[in-house]
Amino acid sequence: MAGTFTGTARLTRLALRRDRIQLPLWIVGTTVLASFTYTAVREQFPTEAARLTALRTAVDTPAILMLRNAPTGVDDGDMMAFQILTFLAALAGFMSTLAVVRHTRQNEETGRTEMIGSMVVGRHASLAAAMIVTAGANLLLATLIALTLIGNGLPAAGSVAFGLGVGAAGLTFGAVAAVAAQVSQGARAANGIAAATIGAGYLLRGLGDAFGAVRPDGYTMTSAWPSWLSPIGWATLVRPFAENRWWVLALPAAVFAVLLAVAFALADRRDIGMGMISARPGPGRAASGLLSPLGLAWRLQRGTLFGWAVAVGLFGVTIGSLAGAVEDAFAGNEGAARTIRELGGEGALSDSFFTAMLAMVGAMAAGYVVQAMLRVRAEEAGGRAEPLLATATGRLHWLGGHLLVAALGAVFLLLLAGLSAGLVAGLSAGGLADRLADLGAAALVQTAPALIMIGYVVLVFGLLPRLAVGLGWLGFAVSLIAGQFGELLNLPRAVRDVSPFSHVPALPSAELSATPLVLLALVAVALGAAGLALFRRRDLAL
User: Fold this and answer.
1) pLDDT at 131 (0 to 100)
2) Residues 405/330, Cβ–Cβ less than 8 Å
3) 535 has a pLDDT exceeding 70
4) What are residue 70's phi and psi, to 5 degrees?
5) pLDDT, position 284
6) Residues 195, 364: contact at Cβ < 8 Å?
7) SS3 of 412-473
8) Residue 298 needs a FRET pair 20 to 30 A away by CA distance; which of 216, 412, 434, 521 works?
9) Comparing C-alpha atoms, which of 11, 182, 191, 189 is closest to residue 112?
């Protein structure tokens, strides 16, 4: 058994060297976000009366609970956990899954594993090294968050519980990625499975909090059973600063141990470069659609799009079904009405609710296009682009195929969300045709940030291809935080304006304004054109 782990220490050092930039950015960025949130909470809710008003509004508004989590108290730590804990847990999940796949499945695709395996290295060394690095990153993240909160004057026990909840969620999703790396056929599929699991975990947690029971005090809640099925839900169920339920942390620890054992067992039963799910043999002759760069891009991207479509479609159905519950919550509750209008703009209350929820769908579509466009870097780094471009296919034609598939995929995802939400809401409350038209249009305006992200990734790919993956996701994260959390964090208006999410018209709660959409489209075109020009002039695989 010991022989299967030979070389783990050296591979761990190699992985740390490769991640010397990416992991510190994730860890420091997440910790800084936690610190900023604490400062913003104290400024935004300076009195207990203001906090009680906000929490009583939240427990009556499922939309707020879907975005935040079930409130546990009115102290500084309780308010901070209410505002940001679930988002930090999701960030830790993405940090962990990307790291695990990068040091396992991606190494196999690029040939690093085969080269390393020609030396004295055990079969389980790569996976063990990946998990050691990921576990260390989550432990460091949990420690820094706890120390930061303690340094800000919060109780030590609650701060440690908060940090451990975030780290435990990240570690659990890292184990999910370890299993996905053994099952899937490639790194992209493994990342897709892991990302879908994080999305499902966030949705389950949201449903558990939205349908939880309000406690007798009228401003705290007990989460419903779906939260117990989610690693993100476990972080909130620890209830840091309120009850500090340490025993809940046994759940992610047990799941991590089981999934890790499964990952090692599966690693024993597959060949390097292959997945447990065998690839279906293709036809003897290629389909005519593969003769064009666009057809090839569609063939490479369709699996990713299908995975995102399932998640977006379920989200659309969920928010459509919540419309009636939100209307009931608004009845006679001016505080709830004011809060949801702050999230979704002025107008009819149900329209404000849909505006806030469809903004989340816009963020999901932007995440999809970043993942889709980064496929071009994987094709180039894997050596698959060079033989293709040695034919009559031009560089811009090849990259343009991926760009068009990503853009049309974003439109498809947004329409799917808007129409599914409109269908469910229209069937339950009436006015089906109006709901389909209003929510379809409201979803489509969210295409603008997705196009900006396409242009940004193309620019990074053309200018700094080696850093394309890290910078691509970093740009998405910065835009999302500045646009979706800028007001909460009291960021300056100039900083919030950097995010394309800050300029999308608030449909259906407001009138359509074409000016910001035109300006965003022009920025997207400018970024994309600059990236295409740079890519045309640089060498491949640099």
Assistant:
1) 95
2) no
3) yes
4) -65, 125
5) 66
6) no
7) HHHHHHHHHHHHHHHHHHCCHHHHHHHHHHHHHCCHHHHHHHHHHHHHHHHHCHHHHHHHHH
8) 521
9) 11
